[in-house]
Prior knowledge:
7 helices; 12% helix; elongated
Amino acid sequence: MQFNRGRLAFAGLLVMVTAFTACSENLDSSAGCPLLCPDPGGGIETVTIDPVVLDTTVSALTGLGTEQSLLLATRGDTLDARAVIRFDSIPTRYRRVITDTTSTEITTVDSVLLQMRVDTSGGKVPGPVTIDAYDVNSTEADTLTAAVTALFTPDRLIASRTFAVAELKDTVFFALPPAAILSRRGTRLRLGLRARATGSVQLRIRSTEGAVAPTQLSFRVTPDTAVRRVSLVPYSSTPADQPALAASLDDYTILARGTEGGSSGTLNVGGLPARRVYLRFNIPLFLVDSVDVVRASLLLTQRPNRGVDAADTIRVLPHVGLATVAVTDIAKASQITAVVITDTLTLAPRDSGLKIVEVASVVALWRGQNATETPRALVLLSTTEGQTPLEARFFSAEAAPGLRPRLRISYSTRKSRGLP
């Protein structure tokens, strides 16, 4: 068996990063890692630099249907998110028992239930919520948002149900009329879900990607209770020539109206459609190659996002960029990343001021990278990317000097006693 040398090299770097991170936990002693940490007698200096040569907000490019949960939200003129769930194979026949060698035609249907798992995190349900189910079957491509949202019309309404706040926990059952199944035997049923309330409402349903037990559609085909209910899970038959894409379209969130990003010159993380921040650095060579870095902090100045509630929080996780110079599209480069940072920044989008993320592990990784081939970059993204409208905003490198993204690095000029 032949091994990929690039992967082995990267794995080795990650091992070094892990050891380096352990060292950075204690600046006063090297007793925990005597081979890699600086000599305790070496002086530690700290410098703050403006190393960002490129920063921008880019599309997350997460892909339709890849969300861990489906967002149902109606928040005035700021957000309108709906869900589409496909059942592209409604059966025409059933077996009375599994071991039967013959089947019976379905002529009656009763007790049709749509069972959904509710993700209670990040929900905003101030009072009773009505969920409307529409027939959104169409030959239009799912990526044509306007064409799909145009199918949510009164004449396509299948059923509605109002839920009390206490009912929107764990699992909910939504009853559909028998005709919704009978009229679609041998074809497909595609449901469009929309939530509404007296005021703003926001809740999430677990998707096929994010649920151990996904949404299920079940119904009876005979009054005989000895015959099991027919049960179906979300399934998309199109596009037929792209099975991976078809699988992601089993269910997905569709945005009739997304959130607005921050103003020009602002770095935006999160929101809907989801956005990321790409930061490219030019680090003085001696800080990477000639000293022992014992701590490195990314300094970001947050700009307040007043379009969210005061209690809202978002978690921002930096990834290290691995795209080479061959990738000239920054949006695509922001997808080629790895997680080597354990420090997640939790903040309130409405807040402002200085925010700090520890990135010593990234600086250690950069030591093993050739900057002329792989630019030194960080990508900031939300841990709930594509699932929530929350967006954190930061000043960019175009801002005043005291507001720009900066790096604060503490280092020792004494070389380590062991591995370089």
